[in-house]
């Protein structure tokens, strides 16, 4: 659905987007993550046509009327009601009128639909923005932090709505809520300093980017076990994660499988349980982006 080649946006000597090669599969939910200032919002603005690239190219398999954009802080005329705002978006997009009430309900603002949006909270405005974005049934949705201001219930409703769009439309959204990305995205891009430092299926990021880590529970005393394991050059780190629990980071799975049990035995550890730690997107993200 979206492909960019060497896409760059410069402001003077600073590059907000620096040579990004983005590929968003059609029908996918693509999560764009990165630290503050990574270039996520600038990249979405380029794709939306709100800014012009300095160099590079992009191909989007959707016409201007088939793309919907949700900014991170949506704003609306305060004297309009929520239903009038969504109806206006529906008329501008040419969607069927019966879609208005449906998306209002799905966004969780049905009870407030008759109120002027000037009295809406930040979270309610975010929900309203989501409703306006999906009412026209676009082929491509560009969402900038769609769940950032929502309470847990609101986040759940928005995530469910995004998940239902998989295969029906293509969704590209940025977020600093890594748990949300891990839950609903099938593809992820990690940005840092304007560059794309990882792009691919989320499973490949979780399996391949972070160093393997094992969780070991053993009976006291634990200090001799920690000291002994830290002498092994193939062990990258040992942390005490609980009264009787250790988190052991190894440099490779082969080292762990061949040597970890023997190393534990060599320290005199009385092992209660042993197993690999499930890799979260947050951990993989930190290992990619931290110096």
Distance between the termini: 33 Å
- Share of helix among residues? 25-40%
Structural class: alpha/beta
Largest sheet, if any? 6 strands, mixed
Order of helices and strands: EEEEHEEHHHEHEHEEHEHEEHEH
Overall shape: it is: elongated
Spatial strand sequence of the major β-sheet: 6-7-8-4-9-10
Number of helices: 10
What is the radius of gyration?
A: 23 Å
Mean pLDDT: 90
The beta-strand count equals: 14
Low-confidence stretches: none
Beta content: 25-35%
Fold and architecture overview:
With 291 residues, the chain is α/β, with parallel strands linked by helices. 34% of the residues lie in helices and 29% in strands. It is built from ten helices and 14 strands. It has a six-stranded mixed β-sheet with strand order 6-7-8-4-9-10, with helices on both faces. Strands 1, 2, 3 and 5 form a four-stranded antiparallel β-sheet that branches. The two termini are 33 Å apart.
Q: SSE layout and pairings?
A:
Elements: E1 2-11, E2 14-20, E3 23-24, E4 29-33, H1 40-48, E5 55-60, E6 67-70, H2 82-93, H3 99-106, H4 122-134, E7 140-144, H5 152-164, E8 170-174, H6 178-184, E9 187-192, E10 195-201, H7 202-208, E11 213-219, H8 223-229, E12 235-242, E13 245-250, H9 253-266, E14 270-276, H10 281-289
Helix pairs in contact: 2-3, 2-4, 3-4
Q: What's the short story on this structure?
A:
This protein is of the alpha/beta class and 291 residues long. Helices cover 34% and strands 29% of the residues.
């Amino acid at each position: 659905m979206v492909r960019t080649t060497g896409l760059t946006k410069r402001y003077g000597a600073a590059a907000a987007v620096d040579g990004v090669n983005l590929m968003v599969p059609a029908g996918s939910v693509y999560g764009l993550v990165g630290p503050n200032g990574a270039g996520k919002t600038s990249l979405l603005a380029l794709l939306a046509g709100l800014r012009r690239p300095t160099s590079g190219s992009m191909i989007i398999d959707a016409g201007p009327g088939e793309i919907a954009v949700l900014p991170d802080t949506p704003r609306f005329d305060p004297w309009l009601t929520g239903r009038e705002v969504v109806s206006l978006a529906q008329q501008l997009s040419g969607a069927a009128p019966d879609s208005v009430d449906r998306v209002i309900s799905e966004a969780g603002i049905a009870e407030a639909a008759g109120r002027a949006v000037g009295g809406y909270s930040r979270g309610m405005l975010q929900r309203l923005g989501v409703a306006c974005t999906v009412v026209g049934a676009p082929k491509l949705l560009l969402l900038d932090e769609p769940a950032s201001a929502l309470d847990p219930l609101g986040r759940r409703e928005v995530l469910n709505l995004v998940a239902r769009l998989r295969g029906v439309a293509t969704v590209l959204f940025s977020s600093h809520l890594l748990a949300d990305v891990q839950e609903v995205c099938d593809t992820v891009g990690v940005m840092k300093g304007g560059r794309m430092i990882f792009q691919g299926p989320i499973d490949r990021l979780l399996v391949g980017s972070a160093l393997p880590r094992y969780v070991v529970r053993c009976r006291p005393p634990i200090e001799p076990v920690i000291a002994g394991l830290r002498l092994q050059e193939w062990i990258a780190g040992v942390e005490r994660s609980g009264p009787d629990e250790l988190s052991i980071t190894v440099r490779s799975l082969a080292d762990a499988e061949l040597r970890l049990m023997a190393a534990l035995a060599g320290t005199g550890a009385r092992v209660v349980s042993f197993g690999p730690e499930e890799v979260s997107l947050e951990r993989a993200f930190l290992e990619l982006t931290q110096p």
